[in-house]
Design goal:
2 domains, alpha+beta, 8 helices, globular, 375 residues, 27% strand, 5-stranded antiparallel sheet, Aminopeptidase, 20 strands, OB fold (Dihydrolipoamide Acetyltransferase, E2P)
Length: 375
């Protein structure tokens, strides 16, 4: 095991933040097997992943000592030192950078065309060879990309660590929710196995959801290269990148985190990054649905918010999910599900301003267009 420190650009004299990565198995120059990259709390106020990383680290320490890590595993137990330090009036502000207002999980830079141009003369009819060439050139392009701010340097550091990985797991959570995943549609054949191991109730699929979140920045390079070089060179979907939503923000419990960590280890064993008896593939407890079919439930008026249904329930179009109560007029506004689907997430705030998104129902049909993720 090796610990690496990555200094970020200093935002002001006398200040310096750094990112810490923990490396297991064989480093890139010596690696024969696959590479997995796992990071926690990119949204710094989403802490279930940080506790999962704690348990993963203990398990990986044991596996490393036993010589069972056949590939490379990089663990970033706290992926956002900027957001972790943002406190305002005793409240943690970890989703958006307070300087720019930018979401820490958006706007990851695109090095796709620069990499394609650098790699084209080296490509062949051997798909595995092409994967190696494109990874090498992508890593060079990411490292060479200029950055001017602390936030940009954080993004470049995270991409430098992850861009050549076979598996990328970005550990997040919702407010109150069941276990669910986000990934790009071309990743679903490989993600389906992860969904079984992690016990995901629903996996939400899109091919470019908008604003370049971290997971898509890692995976979309491959299907875009495949499209660019179609008919010339074979390009595989060489990265499975997934946002893992570890239930709700308050689900920071050892029992849950230890089980989640073990499920991730079992998946890595199944994929061959860790030696040992291959675990049986669990039965699926959920399915895949279009992200464009995940319907936000909005409060049309302001008031006290109370829910009538729990995350994880199957609901029908027209079912009342919540009430918004005006404390002055005593009027009650019903919030109804617009579709049949899985009521998989809701907010933990209990006073809703008018227009607030308070819950999500995953339907089976793609109904939305444009940018598909929230703020």
């Amino acid at each position: 095991m090796q610990i690496q420190t990555h200094p970020l650009i200093s935002p002001a004299p006398g200040t310096q933040r750094e990112l810490i990565s923990i490396h297991y198995g064989q480093p890139a120059g010596e690696r024969i097997g696959q590479k997995a990259y796992i990071q926690a709390s990119l949204h710094a106020d989403e802490l279930p992943g940080m506790l999962v990383a704690h348990h993963l680290r203990k398990k990986l320490d044991v596996l490393q000592a036993a010589g069972r890590i056949t590939g490379e595993v990089i663990l970033v137990p706290m992926a956002n030192p900027i957001g972790l330090s943002q406190q305002m009036l005793y409240m943690h502000m970890g989703r958006f950078e307070t300087t720019t207002g930018e979401n820490f999980n958006r706007h990851y830079p695109d090095q796709i065309e620069a990499t394609a141009q650098a790699a084209e003369s080296q490509l062949s009819q051997d798909a595995d060879h092409n994967t190696r060439v494109l990874r090498r050139e992508l890593k060079k392009a990411v490292a060479a990309a200029p950055v001017d701010t602390e936030l940009q340097s954080l993004r470049r550091t995270l991409m430098s660590l992850s861009c050549d990985a076979d598996i990328v797991l970005d550990l997040h959570c919702d407010a109150q929710a069941v276990m669910h995943l986000y990934t790009e549609t071309p990743c679903w054949p490989e993600c389906e196995m992860l969904a079984r191991f992690i016990r995901s109730r629903v996996t939400l699929l899109a091919q470019e959801s908008g604003d370049s979140p971290f997971d898509e920045a890692c995976s979309q390079t491959w299907w875009k290269w495949a499209k660019r070089f179609e008919g010339q060179f074979p390009i595989k979907q060489a990265c499975l990148s997934v946002t893992v939503e570890l239930r709700g923000a308050a689900d920071v419990e050892h029992a849950l985190a230890e089980a989640d960590a073990q499920n991730i280890i079992d998946f890595l064993i199944y994929r061959g990054l860790i030696s040992g008896d291959k675990p049986a593939l669990p039965e699926a407890v959920g399915d895949a649905r279009p992200l464009a079919g995940s319907m936000p439930i909005k409060a049309p008026v302001a008031g006290a918010l109370t829910f009538l249904r729990e995350p994880g329930e199957t609901v029908a179009a027209g079912d009342v999910l919540a009430h918004v109560i005006d404390p002055i007029s005593n009027a009650v506004t019903e919030l109804k599900s617009p579709v049949d689907g899985l009521f998989f997430a809701r907010d933990f705030v209990r006073f809703a301003p008018a227009g607030m998104r308070v819950a999500k129902v995953a339907g089976l049909q793609a109904l939305r267009t444009g940018k598909l993720l929230g703020a």
